[in-house]
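Summary for the funding panel

The consortium committed to producing paired sequence-structure records for every protein in the target list. Below we show the first two records in order, beginning with the earlier of the two.
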Amino acid sequence: MTFSTSRIPRASGQGSGLKRAAAAGADAALILAFAAIGRDAHQRGEIVTGILATAWPFLAGAAASWLVLRAWRAPLALWPTGVGVWLGTVAVGMLLRAVTGQTVVLPFVVVALLALGVFLLGYRLLVSGVDRFRSHRRQA
C-alpha cells in the first residue's frame, strides 16, 4: 500500500485561528481598557465589578458585530471588519446602556466613538503597517 503526499490535507492559512483569537482578544481587552480608563477618570469605586458593568454593553456590541460581519474571515482588516466592529460596538453598546438604565449622553457617545475608534482601528492599522514593512523587507 502506498500513500501519496498530495492526498494529505494541508492546513490552510496556518495561524489564522491564532489571528482570529488574538484579534477577538485584543478587541475585548481594549474595550475593557476603555471602561477602566473611563471609570478611573471619574473616580468611581468597585474596580472590577464597575469595569465589567461599564464594559459589558460594549463587549456585547463587539460580539454581535463579529457575528454580523463574520469578522473571523478577516479579523485584522481595517475595512470592513475594523470599522464595522468599531461602529457596531458603540451603537449596540449605547443601545444596551439605554435599555438597561445606564447613562447615555452626547459627550459620552462622542468620547466612546473617539476612544474606541483609536483602540479598535489603531491596533489594526499598526498590524497592517508591520505586515507591510515585513513584506517590503522580504522583497528587498
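The next record, for a separate protein in the list, is shown here:
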Amino acid sequence: MMNIKYKITKDNINWEEVAGVLRKAHLSDHTAKEQQTVFENSYAVVFVYDGDSIVGVARALSDGLFQAAIYNVALDEKYQGKGIGREMMKRLTSQLKGQNIILYTHPQTVLLYEKLGFRRAKTAMELFDTSAQKLEWLEDTGFFLPENYRFCDEYKRSDMKGPAWKYSKHNN
C-alpha cells in the first residue's frame, strides 16, 4: 500500500535518497552533497515520498517573474503510470505560474511531456561544458540534432544560410 506525500520545501531532506533516485533514473551520478547544492539553489522543488522514503524529485530554476527551466525530474519506476509524476509536475509548475517554462528531458520522455501540455521547440540551443565522449553520447542518444542540422522549412531562408546550407542537397 502506498502512502504518497508531496513536499515543496527544502527542509529536512535526505540528500542521499535524492541522489539515489536520480542515479537510479540514470539522470545524474552526482554526490548527495552536490544534489543538496543544486536543489537548495533551485527556485522550486518537489519531493515525492512514499511513507518516509523519497521516490521522486523535480526542480526548476527561475528569475521569479518571466522565465523558468525544469531539470532533474525523476520518479522511481515502480511508481510510474499511477498519476504520481503528473501530480509532481503539476505541483512544480504551479510554483512557476505566469512564467515561460523550458524543460530539458530525455528523448524517451518527449511524449509524456507533450501529454502535460509542453511543446517541442525548434530554436532551443544547448552548450555543454563536457567531454567529447559525453557530447557524442548525447548526440547518439537523441538529445542533439546532427551538427548544423536545418529543418526543411529553413533551407530557403536567407538568414539560415551557413555551413549546412552550403553543402545541403536542398540548395536549389
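Regarding this second record: The beta strands are 4-7, 44-50, 53-62, 67-75, 100-103. The longest strand covers residues 53-62.
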